[in-house]
Design a protein that fits this description.
Order of helices and strands: HEEHHEHHEEEEHH
Strand order of the largest sheet: 3-7-6-5-4
Strand content: 15-25%
Distance between the termini: 30 Å
Shape: elongated
Radius of gyration: 19 Å
Bound molecules: zinc ion
Number of helices: 7
C-alpha cells in the first residue's frame, strides 16, 4: 500500500504531502494543500482518501476485467447494434485493458470520489444480453452519484473487438442512463471479483464514517 499516492479528500487530485521536522516527530499535525480546489487539510486525511480511492478503483478494474472475460468478441455490425447504434463520435477504439480502465475511471470520477468519501454513490458493472438469444453481448458500466448530489448517472458500454481491443461507447451527457442499462444493473449486478475476498472486506470497511476526512467541512 506504500506506493498509493495521497489525494485531496475533496476533489481526489493527487497531492504532495510535505512533512516538516515538527510533524515527523509528532509535535505538529502535517498539513497538505490542494492547488486545484485551494483547500488545506490534514495529511492523514489525504492518505485515507488516497487508499480509499485506490481500493475502489481496483475493485472497479477487477469487475470490469471479469465482465470482459465473459463477453464475446463481436463482429462489426453485431457490435454496433449491441451498443445501441451509437453516434460514431461517442465511440472510441481502445487498444488495451489498462487504457480502458483509465478512460472509464476518468469519466466515472464523480461517483468514484463520492465512494472514496464514504457517500452512497455506486459504480456498477454488468452484462447486456441479446434480447432474442439471451447471450451476453457487451459490458455496461453505470456510475450513480449520491442522492445529495442529485443521483446523476454516467453510462458507458464496452464491446470486445479482439483479445484486448475494445470499443468504448460513452453515453453522451449525464442526464440519465438508458432504461435497458439501469434494468440490467438492477437485475444482474456483477458480484465483486471472487479471487480477492479481502478487497470486498476492505470495501465494506471503507464505507465506515472513518473514511470521511476529519477536517472535511464541506463548503
Ligand atoms: Zn482538491
Amino acid at each position: 500500500m506504500t506506493d498509493v499516492p495521497p489525494r485531496c479528500p475533496f476533489c481526489a487530485n493527487v497531492i504532495k504531502v510535505e512533512s516538516t521536522f515538527w510533524s515527523r516527530i509528532g509535535l505538529k499535525t502535517a498539513l497538505a494543500y490542494c492547488m486545484p480546489c485551494q483547500r488545506s487539510f490534514e495529511a492523514r486525511d489525504a492518505q485515507t482518501m488516497g487508499s480509499s480511492f485506490h481500493q475502489w478503483a481496483e475493485l472497479f478494474r477487477g469487475k470490469l476485467a471479469q465482465a470482459l472475460n465473459l463477453a464475446p468478441i463481436l463482429p462489426e455490425p453485431v457490435l454496433h447494434r449491441a451498443l445501441g447504434n451509437p453516434h460514431k463520435d461517442d465511440t472510441r477504439l481502445i487498444p488495451s485493458l489498462d487504457e480502458l480502465v483509465r478512460t472509464c475511471l476518468r469519466h466515472q470520477r464523480t461517483p468514484l470520489i463520492e465512494m472514496a468519501r464514504g457517500r452512497e454513490s455506486t459504480l456498477e458493472v454488468t452484462h447486456l444480453h441479446n434480447e432474442a438469444t439471451g447471450d451476453v453481448e457487451v459490458v455496461a458500466i453505470l456510475g450513480t452519484s449520491s442522492s445529495e448530489s442529485g443521483s446523476r448517472e454516467w453510462e458507458q458500454l464496452v464491446a470486445r473487438t479482439g483479445l484486448s481491443h475494445f470499443v468504448l461507447y460513452t453515453h453522451p451527457g449525464t442526464s440519465g442512463a438508458e432504461t435497458r442499462v439501469k434494468r440490467a444493473v438492477h437485475q444482474r449486478p456483477l458480484p465483486a471479483p471472487q479471487h480477492d475476498p479481502a478487497v470486498a472486506a476492505r470495501m465494506q470497511a471503507s464505507r465506515a464514517p472513518a473514511a470521511v476526512p476529519h477536517t472535511a467541512k464541506h463548503r
